[in-house]
Amino acid sequence: MRDAVLSALSTVNDPELHRDLVSLGMIEQVQIEAGAVHVKVNLTTPACPLKGQIESDVRAAVLTVPGVQTVNVTFGATVRAAVMALPGVKHVVLVGSGKGGVGKSSVAVNLAAALARDGARVGLLDADVYGPSVAHMMGQGAARVSANAERKMQPIEAHGLRFLSMANLSPAGQALVWRGPMLHSAVQQFIKDAAWGELDYLIVDLPPGTGDVQLSLTQTVQVTGAVIVTTPQAVALIDAARAVDMFRKASVPVLGVIENMSYFVAPDTGITYDLFGRGGSRQLGEYPLLGEIPLEVALREDADAGTPAVLAHPQAPASVALAQAARRLAGQISVRAEHRALADLPGQLTVV
Description:
By secondary structure, this protein is α/β, with parallel strands linked by helices. 32% of the residues lie in helices and 22% in strands. The protein has an 8-stranded mixed sheet with strand order 8-9-5-10-4-11-12-15, with helices on both faces. Helix 2 (51-62) links the parallel strand 2 (36-43) and strand 3 (70-77). The longest helix has 24 residues, at 317-340. It is globular and about 70 Å long. The termini are close together. The model is unreliable at 348-352 (pLDDT under 50).
């Protein structure tokens, strides 16, 4: 029966990688006892957006094997990377926009929190040196960054992830009047002189625009890709297109677009209003639309209160949309990693 089970599993494709689970090394374990079969699938990310479909397909395939009466499917997850972005860090993902005021930092914080909630090891870097807001959104505005025994910056831990922000290094309310070389030095320290530890994803909240910090990051670290945050408004889309062009010139793949403040649903009537237009993000090109995030009061209130909305109010429509966007982003990262080093993907199979 063992060979028959493996043969059946080889007909099941990962919906995003478009290759079968056996050749991808995703079948971690098969146990057979009488007519009961247990299959453990090792996903390429704990935030897999199509986990339910994989489970259904595995169960259906194995049930076609003569003699199989029941199928139990469980999951593990190992985020894969063709090239480590940093020692211990598998993927660096930049969250950028062409202009301020589109909710980029709020989106970055909630993407990071959603990935961590799903079981990934996540870091969050607030690279908006002039206007850091991540510390406040994480409820750690008064915390101070310390150094470890190796004299490296120790990221602050909150809500299941690690983060660094200039707000936790400089006095509250103090403006930083720095030129380009000082910004470059700060980015270098945040990246290379911080004890990030073992991370699956390091999410970087960029400052608005296409300036020194963006260039420093793309020249300092192996970036997996970028997420563009925009509103559907034409003015925002013009600047978002500039951000896309900047990443193209820096050879940074755009993993997808998130349309923030996409629409507003009046809580008293349920009527939907497209306050800034809707669907304009599709004008940015053939990039995956990771999510359309509605404008909600709770999203702002949670940010001000210091708890990511995906954790404070996980059932709210904006939180659900952000969590889905995080899983789609994780899927895009897995696809890119598989395309870069398919031949090197590990595969371990234990048959009992």
